[in-house]
Amino acid sequence: MLRIRTRALRMRVLDVLHRYSMWVLAMEDAAVPMREVSENALFAKLEIF
């Protein structure tokens, strides 16, 4: 029971790490435009408040 749970947990952690690494690679690919977009979104949120 515990072994199955740890295996499922390990697979979940690996899945999250994989998604995070893919997301980081995508962010590095689009670093400059995404930085501008995120700054614009941040200012938009600040203007909402």
From TrEMBL:
Query: What is this protein's name?
Result: Uncharacterized protein
